[in-house]
Specification:
Blueprint lengths: L5 E5 L3 H13 L4 E5 L7 H9 L4 E2 L4 H5 L6 H8 L4 H10 L4 E3 L4 E4 L5 H14 L2 E3 L4 E6 L4 E5 L4 E4 L1 E4 L20 E7 L1 E5 L11 E9 L5 E8 L3 E3 L1 H9 L1 H6 L3 E7 L6 H14 L7 H5 L3 H10 L13 H12 L1 E10 L5 E6 L4 E2 L4 E2 L5 E3 L13 H13 L6
Parallel strand pairs: 1-2, 1-10, 2-6, 10-21
Antiparallel strand pairs: 3-5, 4-5, 7-8, 8-9, 11-18, 12-15, 12-17, 13-14, 13-16, 14-15, 16-17, 19-20
Helix pairs in contact: 1-6, 1-13, 9-12
Length: 408
């Protein structure tokens, strides 16, 4: 690329800043400008991880890493070979930000404060001379023979030789209308990564109870996930639910968020195997039925709740419980049904699936296959990851590749 080119990044979020900084580092003679429609920047970075910023997830196996993306798995596995988690750690370290791994492999800045990431980005755009234009809402992008004309609301058209779109995800397909002149195909956006609102609030009396390893399955489908679950005042949360919501995002949207789930509270047992285990305990010991929470490693409050649902007095001795009733209790533990009506956004974070059709993007360059000179990075693409730093990693990777401005 020749010098003195005008490169425009649309969107001042994580992918936008990362694309702008790396573009300027690659092409120091070029004019790099970020256009942001609001008066705020890096909002997701600020609130991510409870204000700590979950920068990435410590997974150095690219094939394993890519499995955490219900949409974009194949494409990202290829992209991670160019810019991986290891590269992310090294990039931030070079900028003076040390990333620290936690027990669950999530990675945060050592300061435990998202401001460290924000300061890193802000200092870089100032140092590199990158322009930031706030309240600059892009209405249309048109490709002419040699450049792009960008119409900003209430302003004259803005000229660009190259464009990198990093606007993030939207809830409505109409929000992508600024790309309509380019005839970019948009996959209908729907929410991903949310908690489940239970219809019958009876279980919510256990608010705060968590179980380390359960299986949550959507009835009548193959959608399921193993992992920790948390009972809340509105229903169910925790990684098992959040990952499942991501996997089944499109299906649940079509269901209008009215569906049934089956929870196996043991995560590993089937009804028959649990029944055999409890039968052995019954034949060897005359403990109360509620005492089995120690044997099957479930919270006592949960066991009391499930016993009551089974019509069993929690203080009854095991010997007093008929085998038929015991088997019924085992079935409730392993096949506990709940009707879900509605969803709740996970904390203050939101993720959407949908966006720019991945079939229209060359993942070796992040350039549109239809229109030369326009690139896409971050959540504007039909890519979404499960909770744990995966969405940011996809943003860093795709933005880094787009910043090379390669045309293959």
């Amino acid at each position: 690329m020749s010098a003195n080119k005008n490169i425009v990044i649309i969107g001042a979020g994580a992918a936008g800043y990362f694309a702008a900084i790396n573009t300027k580092l690659n092409y120091p003679e070029a004019q790099v400008t970020i256009l942001e429609k609001s008066n705020k920047t890096l909002q997701k970075v600020k609130i991510s991880g409870g204000g700590r910023c979950n920068v990435t997830h410590y997974c150095l196996d690219n094939a394993l890493l890519s499995r955490n993306y219900p949409r974009g798995q194949k494409e990202l596995q290829q992209a991670f070979h160019v810019f991986s988690v290891k590269d992310t750690i090294a990039w931030f370290k070079q900028q003076g930000v040390q990333l620290v791994k936690e027990h669950d492999n999530r990675m945060f800045p050592s300061s435990n404060n998202s401001q460290s990431i924000i300061d890193c980005f802000e200092q870089n755009i100032k140092k590199l001379g990158i322009k930031l234009w706030l309240n600059a809402e892009v209405q249309t992008i048109e490709k002419n023979s040699s450049h792009f004309d960008i119409q900003i609301k209430g302003k004259e058209k803005y000229y660009a030789d190259y464009v990198i779109v990093t606007t993030g995800g939207y809830f409505q397909k109409e929000a992508y209308s600024f790309l309509s002149c380019l005839r970019i195909n948009i996959v209908n956006p729907v929410p991903s990564l949310f908690t489940f609102n239970v219809a019958n609030k009876e279980v919510c009396q256990l608010m705060g109870v968590s179980v380390a390893e359960v299986e949550v399955k959507i009835s009548g489908t193959n959608y399921s996930h193993y992992g920790p679950i948390l009972i809340t005042h509105w229903g169910f949360s925790g990684p098992a639910v959040l990952v499942l919501s991501s996997k089944a995002a499109e299906f649940l949207y079509d269901c209008k968020y009215d569906f049934d789930i089956i929870i196996n509270w043991t995560g590993k047992h089937h009804t028959d195997s649990l029944f055999q285990q409890l039968l052995q305990i019954k034949n060897k010991s005359n403990i109360t039925i509620r005492s089995i929470y120690k044997e099957i490693q479930l919270p006592s409050r949960l066991i009391d709740f499930l016993l009551t649902k089974s019509g069993i007095d929690p203080h009854k001795k095991m010997a007093e419980i008929s085998n038929k009733l015991l088997n019924s209790f085992c079935r409730i533990i392993c096949e506990n049904n709940y009707n879900i009506k509605g969803k709740t956004t996970f904390k203050e974070e939101f993720v959407t699936c949908g966006g720019v059709d991945l079939k229209e993007v060359n993942f070796k360059t992040m350039e549109s296959k239809k229109i030369k000179g326009i690139y896409f990075a971050g959540e504007v693409l039909n890519i979404d990851g499960v909770t744990g730093g995966f969405n940011f990693q996809a943003a860093w990777t795709t933005a880094y590749i787009a910043a090379q401005l390669k045309e293959l």
